[in-house]
Design goal:
The chain is of the alpha/beta class. Helices cover about 40% and strands about 15% of the residues. The protein has one domain (about 5-180): 3-Layer(aba) Sandwich (Rossmann fold), CATH 3.40.50.360. The chain binds ligand FNR.
C-alpha cells in the first residue's frame, strides 16, 4: 500500500542536514509513501489564550497531520534537546484540549548531527513528548545519523553504503510499523 506521511523537520535553515536526511528517507521509501513536509516556520508562538480563535496556520497544520497516515520527525539537537520551533509546532497541533491532531497515529523519530552522538539526546527528549501526545512511536530501530560532508548527495542518495543500508532498514521498519498501526 501507499502511505501519506506528514514530515516535521526541526530545522528551518535551507541547508539543514536534517532536511537532507528527510529527502534521503523519502527516496528510500520509493513509491510506498509520499512525504508531506509540514510548514512550521509561521506557526505563532503557542498561547493558550488563543485556543478559542485558533490561529489559521495552526488549523492548516492540524489538517495536514489529520490527513496523514503517519508522522515522521526529523530533528537536530539544540543544546541537548529539540529546537523550540519544533516544540512550538507540536504544542500547537496537540491543542485545544480534546482536539489533539496526533492522537493514535503511528510515528517515528530520527535525526542527524555533526556531533558524534548524532542527536541522540534530542531524540530521547522528543520521544517523551510524542508519547504524551498519544502518538504510537516506533521504538526500534533507533537512528542517530552522524553527518559528515558529502554523506547525502543533492538528489537524496546516501553515498556511504553502510549508512544507506541502515537507513533503508529504518524506513522499511517504519513502513511495516505504519501498516500495523494506521487507522485507515
Ligand atoms: C547546535 N548543535 C548541536 N549539536 C549537537 O550534537 N548537540 C547539541 O546540543 C547542539 N546544540 C546546538 C545548539 C544550537 C542553538 C545550534 C544552532 C546548533 C549543532 C547542530 O547539530 C548543527 O548545527 C546541525 O547542522 C543542525 O541541524 P540542521 O540545521 O543542519 O538540520
Amino acid at each position: 500500500s501507499h502511505y501519506k506521511i506528514a514530515v516535521f523537520v526541526g530545522s528551518l535553515r535551507k541547508e539543514s542536514i536534517n532536511r537532507q536526511l528527510a529527502h534521503a528517507l523519502e527516496k528510500l521509501a520509493g513509491d510506498r509513501a509520499s512525504f508531506e513536509y509540514i510548514k512550521i516556520d509561521d506557526i505563532p508562538l503557542y498561547n493558550q489564550d488563543h485556543d478559542k480563535q485558533f490561529p489559521a496556520q495552526g488549523t492548516r497544520m492540524k489538517g495536514q497531520v489529520r490527513a496523514a497516515d503517519a508522522v515522521l520527525f526529523v530533528t537536530p539537537e539544540y543544546n541537548r534537546s529539540i529546537p523550540g520551533v519544533l516544540k512550538n509546532a507540536i504544542d500547537t497541533a496537540s491543542r485545544p484540549y480534546g482536539d489533539n491532531a496526533f492522537a493514535g497515529k503511528p510515528a517515528a523519530v530520527i535525526g542527524s548531527s555533526i556531533g558524534a552522538i548524532g542527536s541522540a539526546l534530542a531524540q530521547q527528549h522528543l520521544r517523551n513528548v510524542l508519547v504524551f501526545v498519544n502518538l504510537a512511536v516506533m521504538a526500534q530501530p533507533e537512528a542517530f545519523v552522524h553527518y559528515k560532508e558529502g554523506l547525502i548527495e543533492a538528489d537524496g542518495t546516501i553515498s556511504n553504503e553502510g549508512t544507506r543500508k541502515f537507513l533503508q532498514d529504518y524506513m522499511d521498519a517504519f513502513l511495516d510499523w505504519i501498516q500495523v498501526h494506521h487507522k485507515g
